[in-house]
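All the exercises in this workshop are built on plain-text protein records. A record pairs a protein's sequence with a compact description of its fold. The structure tokens are whole numbers drawn from a learned vocabulary of backbone shapes. Once this layout is familiar, the rest of the handout is easier to follow. An example says more than a description, so a record of this kind follows.
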Amino acid sequence: MYKRLSIIMFPFLLIALIGASVWGYLEHQEKNTILIKAENQYQRAFHDLSFHVDKLHTELGNTLAVNATSEPSYRKGLVNVWRLTSQAQSDITQLPLTLLPFNKTEDFLANMANFSYRMSVRDMTKQPLNEQEIKTLNALYDHSSEITKEIRGVQEKVLSKNLRWMDVEVALASKNEPHDNAIIDGFSTVDKKVGAYEELNWGPGNLSIFSKNDVSALSGNDMTADQIKQKAEQFLGVNDATNMKVVENGGSAPEFQSFSVVVPGGDGSENDIQMDFTKKGGHLIYFMKPRTVKESKFDLRHARDIANEFLDQHEYKDMSAVSYDQYQNIANIIFAKREKDVTIYPQQVSVKVALDTLEVIGVQATDYIYGQKQRTVGQPKMTAAEARKQLSPKMEVTGESLAIIKNELDEEVLCHEFIGKMNNNLYRVYMNSENGMEEKIETIRPEQAEAAAEAEAKK
């Protein structure tokens, strides 16, 4: 009986074994294909990085070789430096370096890209490179030479020893094991050298991640935790705040000093009310009351009016709505300071309004609080009619006013602001009121157009 059963079952078992073997082989082949594809992508990104850093060093040398008064040559060289630096940043993001400390090099490249871009878009006939900027360019040239040399060394090892980037991922993931890998060692050496460079002067308009808040813009004296608690109680309109927690932040650095306030929501930490105040003056810079908004009973116009009234009741006076958005039944409205019929865009407040009850559930006012300063709003040298001639003749202008914005050099400039339609889109165009140059163009999304047009009409 067992013999007969064996004879019957044997073919089925054989077929199952063959099927499992074929399936395993195909799975192995598919896995190898994916690994080979990933390895090829890593290798391409690495060799592109080596090429772009090498070209970056060459381009910096070419830029320094021309006469400082040669505006077109300098502009061309700086544009190429910015382009190559941006490409090198893109190459780095494609490499498996998330677990490897390489942030100093990434910050260095980000600052270099920003520096070269700001210099390239500047009118050098009126504002040529100064001695400090030339010094910074020379330092960048020297530093790029060292970085190029180190990355070339890594590239030579990769090519001569057929090193794989997939091994880098495995080595970095093995936290408890020493990283004996030529690629890891090479990139770690590069980051250490970059971290040891003398601090460079990137200029006043540098948009570095290390930019600090200007505490000199704040009014008032330093606050205590108890005083902040009282301010939070007054803002929330509550008398019993026994559950309120106040934490001081920032240590000894004035630009980072603040107080965080948390009020438990009762249904879990995701519903906690959160607030941030500056230590100096106790100014509210952040407020969030998270809750689910299940339906929209009101539109953006109602939300704008409520948000405007809310700002007037607090320390954010003379504000005008400049941007509208709606997501998950919540309106997000951005207001800018309004002074002498001029919109001050660097001073902004973002307000979130729940569209079911028109309750203000969020405020972000960092730009407004730290952007306060005495501004002299002069008279524009060009009239609105003269600036309007610089627009496309196809644009149908629906509104115009004066505005102060920050240009690409992070400088505040007075502009003629035009709202206009073209190609079935609504645009906001800023023209420099001194020379008529176009400073910025923004596209207003269709769902924002109606509210924006009404807001312009009320200015």
Q: What stands out?
A: The two ends are 98 Å apart (CA to CA). The longest helix spans residues 2-65. The chain has four domains: 15-195, 215-290, 293-373, 384-458.
